[in-house]
Predict the structure.
Amino acid sequence: MTDYQDRPPLDPHPLSDYVAWAGRRNRDPILEVLKTKLPQDAGEVLELASGSGMHINYFAPHFPHLTFQPSDRSGETFEHIRRLRDEQGNANVLDPIVLDLTQPDTWPEKGGYRAMFCINIFQVAPVSIADGMMACAARLLTDDGFLLVYGPFMVDGRFTTPSNEEFHRMLRSAGVEEWGLKDVADLRRAAETHGLTLAEQIDMPANNFSLIFRRT
Ligand SMILES: C[S@@+](CC[C@H](N)C(=O)[O-])C[C@H]1O[C@@H](n2cnc3c(N)ncnc32)[C@H](O)[C@@H]1O
């Protein structure tokens, strides 16, 4: 666990020091994946569970031809997202919208997103959220669009590293029913229910994955 020595105490609140620390570690590796996947021409990209907005505001300047739509289940962090956007002069980041993955009536009417991405939600959310996420992606993505889900996951019922198992134990010891690592297989099954397929499983630093889902 030497690489976790500077880790603040576990706190899943989107504006916590812990979530900011995780975001600073993962944003460059995720950006490198997005550079190889996002379209070269104009279009709109939707972030699910944007939290503080640190990722979308970090990525947006690298893709000036794309428009980025932040979202989250409540408006609690929207002022923070807008402040980052304005401080950084990100003209291609839209005002955040409420989008709750468990509430289809909050999903945007208009689809046509070239890509969607969601970072670090599953370890602090019930696995059932996968169903809403895949239904939402199936409804909103263009035919050639993709959903990128980033985070730590189990694979076929196993922890891929001792540090992931330790992270899972730490989450479980907090006593919150839904906290803990979920299995890639659960997301794959949910995707298949909604006409999507797990197209790529990319190893990322610190024992995380980028999972890319596309239409079957
Ligand atoms: C640990 S934070 C991660 C935030 C951000 N993606 C990041 O990596 O910094 C988890 C986020 O998931 C959001 N979330 C939880 N349940 C959700 C749901 N049902 N629909 C949409 N967002 C949800 C929370 O509001 C929170 O912003």
Notes: The helical segments are 17-37, 54-59, 78-87, 129-140, 162-173, 184-193. The pocket of S-adenosylmethionine is lined by residues 12, 14, 19, 23, 48-52, 54, 72-73, 100-102, 119-121, 124-125, 129 (CB under 6 Å). The chain has one domain: 2-215. The two ends are 39 Å apart (CA to CA).
